[in-house]
Amino acid sequence: MVSEADVKPEIRKGLIGVVADVSAVSKVVQETNTLTYRGYGADDLVQNCSFEEVVFLLWHGELPKPKELEQFQLAERAFRTVDPSLLQTIAKLPTKSHPMDVVRTAVSFFGATNLSTNDPFVPSEHVNLARALQLFAVTPSLVAADLRRRHGRLPLPPNPDLGYSENFLWMCFGRKPSPEHVRAFETTMILYAEHSFNASTFTARVIASTLSDIYSAIAGAIGALKGPLHGGANEAVMHHMNEIGDPAKARDWVNARFANKEKIMGFGHRVYKDGDSRVPCAFAAFKAIATSDEGKRYLAIYEEMEAAVAESKGIKPNLDFPSGPLYALLGFDVEFFTPLFVMSRIAGWTAHVIEQYAANSLVRPLSSYTGVPQRPVVKPKD
Ligand code: COA
User: Fold this and answer.
1) Maximum Cα–Cα distance for the chain, whole Å?
2) What's this model's pTM, rounded to 2 decimal places?
3) Atom 21 of ligand 1 has which residue's CA nearest to it?
4) Ligand 1 atom closest to Cα of 237?
5) Which residue lies with its CA nearest to atom 17 of ligand 1?
6) Mean pLDDT of the chain
């Protein structure tokens, strides 16, 4: 048995290149530069499936048969309604708090009201799948309620006649979205749904590995996603674009930032070194709705920034780069972009939590101590 004192290992800061466990949920296939969910290319899924079908696939390993899909959709629609006590809790949170903090708090509240001290530490997979579905179904309603209250509006009840994406856009804006907008939104939901051992998914798995509950794992994952090096990048992208304002200023802005040794959010990736495989699909969705003057301006800024970053650093955009302006064009306030990512990634996080429970080993790495050697207690004097 290795003790912490014995360890003089090679330290991989940020766990770069460390394979921490096996997983059958998704894979980045380097040879084809494709992200696959349960073996299917994410771009292929965007072209051929609804978000609900993709979520079923992530949880159950196979695409649903028509009857299974029908049952899944019925269940999802049945769990969308938010309990009034949760709506009251959201209403009490300050509107200056970040919507990621609201959704993290709301998920915690939801967990506290769904669990009891009599529950087993890890219930059956069946129970966890039901909890995952409830969380997946209710989270859009929480996000929409938070968005509306910041505009002085009351929450709108979910519409069980509408699919996931259409209903969410309806609950946010109170009008029927165009099919183009639904399609663009749905594309981002599918592309954001899962991405192997990224920081937030790994956080969820670490929490699950202690045999804590699924809600705690998801609340922790939301906290990890908030940071600008992870999910928070889609918000940061929009702040960049708004600061630039005019496409003619984009190149100078990029160069000044690099001269200042600052990163540009929405570029680079830990896993993809030759471009994020999800970008072409997301960019096409963004371009398809960028028809207004504002849309064309964002598109021009996008292209100028992409070219300037490639010229100076050879770095390519990641999914957050097209998603940022896409969400702005759908009418979302910038600080809601990462909660939209949460809504989608709940599918992947919960698939991983369930996988972790099924073959668990407590995640507890070692560290190489660099502090003061052991010494007796001698209290300091004035
Ligand atoms: N802007 C400017 N330079 C960047 C960059 C970016 N977005 N991403 C990477 N680089 C540079 C680094 O400065 C570093 O250069 P150096 O070797 O001269 O120091 C090199 O590329 C390697 O970057 P590093 O941050 O060490 O790579 P990583 O694998 O640890 O980081 C990210 C991956 C995602 C953390 C990093 O690309 C990043 O911070 N991107 C911006 C945040 C973002 O978009 N996050 C969402 C990811 S999906």
Assistant:
1) 77
2) 0.95
3) 268
4) 44
5) 313
6) 95
